[in-house]
Amino acid sequence: MSNENLAGFRCWVVDLGGPPDRPPDAVVVLCHGFGAPGDDLVPLAREVGRFIPDDRKVRFYFPVGPLGLDQFGLPGGRAWWQIDMERLLNATATRNLDELHRTLPDGLETLRPRFGELMDAIRQDSGCPAERFVIGGFSQGAMLATDYVLHCDAAPASLIIFSGALIAEDDWIRAAESCPKLDVLQSHGRDDTVLPFASAEALREMLKRSGHEVDFEPFDGGHTISGGGLQGFGQRIAAVAGSA
């Protein structure tokens, strides 16, 4: 595992399988959630590595959000954009989900081109084309991954949405209706008290109405990543690597 600087972002990089000088057969980019330290998802590389064929190599990139949250009482915590947690939790508690769905978060439009530059740097670093990428994230990272994939010209092999939600609804609908057809794995807990299950369902229905293939994996639990979600994630990585 190495820690690299790509397009101004810190990235944890993990290679599984194959000799060090061999280019990867598939690339995985996974973005952490709000308040995480930036490397909390790194162990998932080993977790899903058991699905990867022995003769294939996969490179995992775990980029670190640009915002530090020490001043907000989260030492070491990182974020992709700032969140008004009180407003979010109030919307969840009052079931005022339209506000959540329609809001374009402050900072997302500024982050969008920067994250695109990061993805360009990852393609150059890995030597892999976009169609051999699996791109996703957890919570806020899942929303960032969704926003990027909906707005890019070349579709990845799969989009992975762990405990994400519908945001920027008007913008996402326009983008979803015009972007290449996507294969999506979406997983969400029925008892999620941070990002409501109904918001995940709204995202699923929006994607399906726009013509995308969505494998929706609900589970009994809260704001986390399920075993079933990890299995589907690993199977998609294996399929991409195996077809290279």
TrEMBL record:
Q: Cite the EC number.
A: 3.1.1.1
Entries under InterPro entries matching the protein: AB_hydrolase_fold, LYPA1-2/EST-like, PLipase/COase/thioEstase
Question: Which keywords does the record carry?
Answer: Hydrolase
Instruction: Please name the Gene3D superfamilies in this protein's record.
Output: alpha/beta hydrolase (3.40.50.1820)
EC main class here is hydrolase
Where is each Phospholipase/carboxylesterase/thioesterase domain found?
Answer: 20-231
Q: Name one GO molecular function term.
A: carboxylesterase activity
The UniProt entry's sequence similarity note says: Belongs to the AB hydrolase superfamily. AB hydrolase 2 family.
Q: What is this protein called?
A: Carboxylesterase 2
Q: Which organism is it from?
A: Stratiformator vulcanicus
